[in-house]
Structures are given as structure tokens and as C-alpha cells.
Amino acid sequence: MNEQLKQFRARWNLTQDQISQLLGVRQPAWHMWESGKRDVPEYVVKEISFFDRLSRREQNKELEGVREGRITRRCSGRKKTRQRT
């Protein structure tokens, strides 16, 4: 699973911090999952799956928000956005 996480992050050219923001998790947790030191929780797998099912336009909009510092979190398909300070 950790290799799949690396591939997912590499496909979108994101840092660990950015992918963590996108999925609404903490960066140290992402690092542990990606390095294989911890099992990936089911809710994270669901969030990745949810992101993959978005249209390319929606994905780009989400990624743009993360790269511009707007944190977008997804919880079971509900979108929560707040401006990073």
C-alpha cells in the first residue's frame, strides 16, 4: 500500500505536506503510511478513492487550492475550505 501512496502523490506532483492538506490528514501521519511504518486507515483509502473519481476539472481545482495555500478537506464527499493563515 505504501508504494501506491507514493505513486498517487507522484502522479499529482505534490509534496507530503500538500497531499496531507488535500486529504485532511497530518503530514507526519502521511509520512508514516508512505514509508510503511503504519497501516493506512480505511478513511484515507476512501478519501483517495473519492479524489480519483472526481472529474479532471474538479481535481485540478482542488490541487490549485492546495498549491495556493487554501486548505481543502474532504470528509465523505463533503467539502470544507478554509484559508491558511
Describe the structure.
The chain has helices spanning 2-11, 16-23, 27-34, 42-53, 56-67; strands at residues 70-75, 78-83. It is an alpha+beta fold and 85 residues long. The chain has one domain (2-83). Strands 1-2 form a two-stranded antiparallel ribbon.
Secondary structure topology:
Blueprint: H1 2-11, H2 16-23, H3 27-34, H4 42-53, H5 56-67, E1 70-75, E2 78-83
Antiparallel strand pairs: 1-2
Helix pairs in contact: 2-3, 2-5
Task: Please state how the strands of the largest beta sheet are arranged side by side.
Answer: 1-2
Largest sheet: 2 strands, antiparallel
What's the total count of β strands?
2
SSE ordering: HHHHHEE
Portion of residues in beta strands equals 5-15%
How far apart the termini lie comes to: 33 Å
Number of helices: 5
Task: Work out the radius of gyration.
Answer: 12 Å
Poorly predicted regions: 75-85
Structural class given helices, strands, pairing?
alpha+beta
Overall domain count: 1
Question: Helical content, roughly?
Answer: 55-70%
Shape: globular
Q: Mean pLDDT, nearest integer? A: 81
How would you summarize what this structure contains?
With 85 residues, the protein is an alpha+beta fold. The chain contains five helices and two strands, in the order αααααββ.
Task: Name its key features.
85 residues; alpha+beta; disordered C terminus
